Structure formats: structure tokens, C-alpha cells
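FIELD: query
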Amino acid sequence: MSGQTSLVRRLGLISATTLVVSNMIGTGIFTTTGFLAADLGSPLVVLLIWIVGGVSAMLGAICYSELALNFTSSGGEYLYLTRAYGPTWGFVTGWVSFFAGFSAPIAAAALAFASYIAFFFPARHAAEIVNWSLFRLGPQQLIACALVVSLSLWNCLGIRRSALLQNWLTTLKILLLVIFVVAGLVAGNGNWSNLSQTTSRSIAMPLWEQFAISLFWIYVSYSGWNAAVYVAEEIQNPRHNLPRALMFGTTMVVVIYFALNVTFLYAIPLESMKGVIPIGALAASRLFGPHTASGLNAIMAFALLSTVNAMIIAGPRVYYAMARAGQFFSPAALVHPRWRTPVNSILAQAACAMLLALTPFPALIVYIGFTLNVFAVMSVSSLFVFRRRPGWRTVRLVDRTYPLIPVTFILIGSWMIIEGVLKKPAISGITALTLLTGAVVYRTRSRNSVS
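FIELD: result
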């Protein structure tokens, strides 16, 4: 391998948009609504929180469009925070991206895939080998790890192969989800009265505070609206295609998510979905019966493949960008001379994702949501820094409403952070430890390089 080999621009608007869509549609929408049912207790509040999350994702995508318009190199938040706040924050966001931004979501999506596969082998799935408080090992974890390894090796063979697979997986996933929604609402065995049936909440926390905590689940479901910025260096005509990919992809997913949740609620009373992880499998079974549901469960499991693949594509480009700038471990900057992919970054990410796949699913999701929200808020806040600099190019929608769009996004994210610290101190503490560790590693590396 050679550190001089660079990435190439091979992704068009369609590929960039499908990358956004595939990063977003996955773990959250197929697993979250059952937990929301238990925490919120009302179908209307469940739908409301998906709308609030969708609006926040749209606002974030609009702000990131302006950032992407001015920074067309790979790296995403690492690049923005480095330019706005200095190299320490840039390194920390890349460090966090390695763990919470990509490796953990890959693990969560792979575990969700295994949960849907378990529908066909329930007895084997239940036989866990090890079950400790923060460690699980059983068939579900083994399936998840096998998926991560397989797709990571495929991604080592070139971005064109990965993008082709991604385009097909995403197209098929969207088509199948649309069919599921239309068939479920038109011909499924559901009941519209389910949308008015409340249930007892499983937690005593005031609803408005729980709403903020539950937004972390929604945040994970919508995370990925910024996916295209991580591969900006491989997108053709990035100043034109990158902002459009962010907006087109996010808008499409917001509509699909709302339709899917209406379908889930039409299929299942809120009481029956409380705490259920494979919520799509349960909805399919109620709407179409167990025989038809078997095929739909396989389809939903297949749909999760594109989510895992999309994140495996995006993550290593962040570590590559950091290492190339001397801000990360140098092997991450190596690009294979034949395949033109950051192979070391891909394999390191796969190893971390497999370790995190041994973590209990609910704790993993809240950790992801809390951590990613912190850096999304910081990135959008950087607009107030950049807009004071000469030569900054603005997006018309942000410009006409400024500062309403970034301020609204920041307020929603800040509310989540405050409630997360107050109500989930253990997970917020782990997030703080992740940040602190990244800062210590950066300072240590900086001192060693100077000496």
C-alpha cells in the first residue's frame, strides 16, 4: 500500500442520495416504536415525536448543506469542528465517530438484523452462551459479527462495487417498504381505532422529560441525514450534488418514517407493542398472518443490510481524512493502490463494531443518540463562526430565515442534552468519558510529536 494513493470521485447524485437514505432507514425505524410505546403511552404522542425528530433532521440537513457547500472534502464534523474550534475538537469528534458515530450504529443495525433473522429460529436465538450485565454472547451476536465481517470485506474491494450494491439494496428497500405500507393500510388486518387507544406508561418520569429522553431513540433513527458529507471527496461535482443529496434523502426518509409508524399503529394496539424490538415483524404478522409475515420479516432483515453497508462505507472516510491531516493514527490514511479504499480504517471499524455488538441493545442506542447529538449541535453552531468569515457561501433557505433554522436545531438538541444528563447520568457519563479519552489521546500525541 501507499500513503500517496488518493480517493477518487465516482459517486453521482443518485449514489450520494441512496447513501443518505440507507444510513437513515434501518435500526431505529425497525426497533424503536415498541420502546416509545412503553415510555410515552399514547399513539398520538408517538407520532408527534417522529414528526419532531423529522423536523429536527430536516433542519440539520439544511444547515449541513451550507457547511457541505463550503467544505467539499471528506471528514464531516471532523472537518467543520477543526476549522471552527481548533484541532482538539476536530480530533475528539473523529475519535467519537469511530466509536459512537459508526462502529456502535453498525453494531446496532447488525443486531437488529439478527433479531429479525431470529424470527425463523426462535429457540436457537434464545440460547445465549454468556449473559452479563453489559455483555451478551449468543446466536444473535454471532450473526451480527458475521454480517459486519462480510460487508466490511466487500467494502475493501472498491467504492464502485460498494456503491453499486448500495444502490440496489436501497432501491429494493424503499420499494418493499412502500409496498408494505400500501398493502398494510389497504388490505391488512388492522384497526384504525388503535390510534386512539392509550396504554399505561412503564416509567414514572413526567411526560415532557421522557419526551426529551425518547428523542435520543428518534435521533438514532434519523441519524444518517448527514451521511453524504463523509464521502464528499468521492462525490462528483460536490458543490452541486452534496447539498441536494442531503435534502432529497432526508425528505424522503421523513415521509417514509411517518407512513411506517402509522402502519405499525394501525396493525398493533400500543399495549401489545410495548418493549418489542422487531416491531416490523410483529406488525407484519398482525396485518397479513404468520405465513405472509415470514416473507416480510425476511424482507425487513434484508433491508437492514443496506443500513449496515452504508455506514461501513461512510465511517472509514472520516478516519482517513483525519489521518491524512496528521490528526489520527497514520495507518488509517493508507489507501489500497488497486482498490482505492481505506482498507485499514474499514477493518479497524469492523473490529470495534464486533466488540460493541456484545453490548445490550437499549443501552447501545441511547449512547449513540446522546453522543451524536452533542456533535451535531456543535457542528450546526459552527455556522455562527463561519458566517463571520469572508468568502463564506450561503444556502438560500438558511440565509432567508437566518438565524431561525440553526437556532431551532440547537435548542432541540440542547434540551435533549440537558435532560439526558439529568435523567440518564450513567450513559451521559460514558459519553463524557469518551470525549475526555479522545482529548487525552490527542494531547498525548501532540506532546510526543513535538518532543
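FIELD: remark
Residues 279-324 form the longest helix (46 residues).
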